[in-house]
Write a structure and sequence with these properties.
Pfam families: CBM60 (PF16841), Metallophos (PF00149). Keywords: Signal. The protein is of the alpha+beta class. It has two domains: about 5-150, Galactose-binding domain-like (Jelly Rolls); about 160-440, Metallo-dependent phosphatases (Purple Acid Phosphatase, chain A, domain 2, 4-Layer Sandwich). It is about 20% helix and about 35% strand. It has helices spanning about 10-20, 180-190, 190-195, 215-230, 255-260, 265-270, 275, 315-325, 355-360, and strands spanning about 35-40, 40-45, 55-60, 65-80, 90-95, 100-105, 110-130, 135, 140, 145-150, 160-165, 195-200, 235, 280, 290-295, 300-305, 330-335, 370-375, 380-385, 395-400, 410-415, 420-425, 430-435, 440. The strands form four sheets. Strands 1, 2, 3, 4, 5, 6, 7 and 10 form an eight-stranded antiparallel sheet that branches. Strands 11, 12, 13, 21, 22, 23 and 24 form a seven-stranded mixed sheet that branches. Helix 8 (about 315-325) links the parallel strand 16 (about 300-305) and strand 17 (about 330-335). It is elongated and about 70 Å long. The two termini are about 35 Å apart.
């Protein structure tokens, strides 16, 4: 909602100055806002990934602009989100007093990187970003929100890795079993060597719940090293992580299994979105059953979409909206059951709502930016490749193991320059390798 623009200019200049002091979250106090804003305002950032200052520059009229000074060489790149009102917002970028070019912002949630103008020589450059196609109706308002400006000449390390933990249910039966904690400690200790950006789990974190929740205590303590090191993670929920599974692994109440597979109350008491560290949205408030997290790696954006086992149609529809709203993110889907030990997509919904084949048909193959799917539940390990509806390749990996002796973890190294992937499985507890599951894939296609 806007006040009349004829009365706005003076108030906005004052508001913009004040907002620098009061809008930025305290956690980002050491990072001042990058922009000075005229006829706009600095407001709390709502897109992802969140800028270090915690604010973005909101421009809502053709007289609105933001200025900053950046150093380096290459092309100017801006990060922004927009409000679509019968069309996306377009901004004009001026560098050192000369118009460098225009670009249209095409996402309402993700601060995509938009290069503008020619390559510039090394130096310090004054940049002005101005909205040029403002539009307002009774139903909507076209605005733009700029989170950063930078030079593209900065050196980007194109290699990074993420990890996927398999079913850990055999590692939580006894408090003296240190394999789960050993794995996360190893990941933290090797974070720099791996350039580790994220850790996922394909589910069955525990084996069954007991009145004292002892298995959850072991699992919770095992995840603390990642939290202390601020390595973001997410855990898919398997059937053993729900109240459907009783002591010993059999059905807790066979007459209520379909109902109890959605009872994740205890899981959500021990694991929260705040602990995960990078969650940007959840299907249900207060529950991590269906959530998505974001991170940056290799100079591009990644989105980890964690989905419940045999998901409800409503959860799949939510997931579709998340992927559609983040077209510049490379999407990694993690769910407990997807492919079997032979690499085939599972066909049964078992005691859930929809089958893995339904998930593939209605979500995974429908979006050009879905790159990977990780799952567990059955078999040992495997992989498959599918071609999506837009011609993109979708790489699916299984890692289950149910090991009684070691603590396997799948490591995935991505090189965005060569658009290649290398994955291998390693058990740090006893230095065990599983070379039969090593895979190197080229031409994975990276969304930029």
């Amino acid at each position: 909602m806007r006040v009349s623009r004829t009365r706005l200019a003076l108030a906005v200049v004052i508001a913009s100055a004040l907002s620098t002091a009061v809008v930025a979250p305290a956690a980002h106090a050491a990072e001042p806002p990058q922009f000075t804003v005229v006829n706009g305002a600095l407001r709390t950032a709502t897109g992802t990934p969140q800028p270090a200052s915690g604010v973005h520059a909101s421009l809502w009229a053709n007289s609105s602009y933001a200025t900053t000074t950046i150093s380096g060489s290459g092309r100017v790149q801006i990060g922004a989100i927009g409000d679509n009102c019968e069309g996306w917002p377009t901004v004009e970028v001026t560098v050192d007093g000369t118009v460098a070019g225009r670009t249209t912002i095409v996402s309402a949630t993700q601060y995509g990187t938009y290069p503008v103008g020619p390559t510039l020589a090394a130096g310090t450059h004054t940049v002005k970003i101005q909205l040029v196609n403002d539009y307002q109706s009774a139903a909507c308002d076209r605005n733009v929100h700029v989170s950063y400006a930078k030079m593209s000449g900065a050196v980007v390390d194109t290699k990074f890795s993420f990890a996927v933990m398999p079913d850990t249910q055999q590692e939580v039966l006894n408090a003296s079993d240190t394999r789960f904690l050993n794995r996360t400690n190893w990941l933290v200790n090797n974070r720099s060597a791996l350039d580790l950006r994220f850790v996922a789990s394909s589910g069955d974190v525990v084996n069954w719940d007991t009145p004292d929740h002892s298995q959850y205590v072991i699992a919770r303590n095992a995840m603390r090293p990642l939290e202390t090191a601020r390595v973001p993670y997410s855990l898919a929920i398997g059937n053993h992580d729900t109240q459907a599974t009783g002591v010993g692994g059999s059905a807790r109440d066979p007459a209520r299994t379909r109902e109890l597979v959605r009872d994740t109350t205890v899981f959500n008491q021990y694991f929260t979105a705040a602990q995960y560290g990078a969650v940007r949205g959840q299907f249900e408030a207060g529950k991590v059953d269906n959530s998505y997290s974001t991170f940056e790696g290799g100079g591009v954006q990644w989105l980890v979409l964690t989905l419940e086992l045999w998901p409800r149609v409503e959860a799949v529809n939510w997931a579709k909206s998340v992927v559609a709203a983040n077209p510049r993110s490379n999407v990694i889907v993690v769910t407990h059951d997807y492919i079997d030990g032979n690499g085939n997509i599972e066909q049964s919904a078992s005691y859930g709502a929809t089958s893995p084949q339904y998930l593939y048909d209605n979500l995974i193959k429908q979006y050009a930016n879905i790159r990977f799917v990780f799952s567990g539940h059955v078999g040992i390990a495997g992989n498959r490749v599918d071609t999506g509806a837009h011609g993109n390749k979708i790489y699916s990996f299984l890692q289950t193991f149910h090991s009684n002796t070691t603590n396997p973890v799948r490591l995935v190294e991505i090189d965005t320059a060569s658009e290649s992937l290398h994955t291998w499985i390693y058990g740090p507890y006893d230095n065990q390798t599983f070379t039969e599951y090593d895979r190197t894939i080229s031409g994975i296609g990276v969304v930029r």
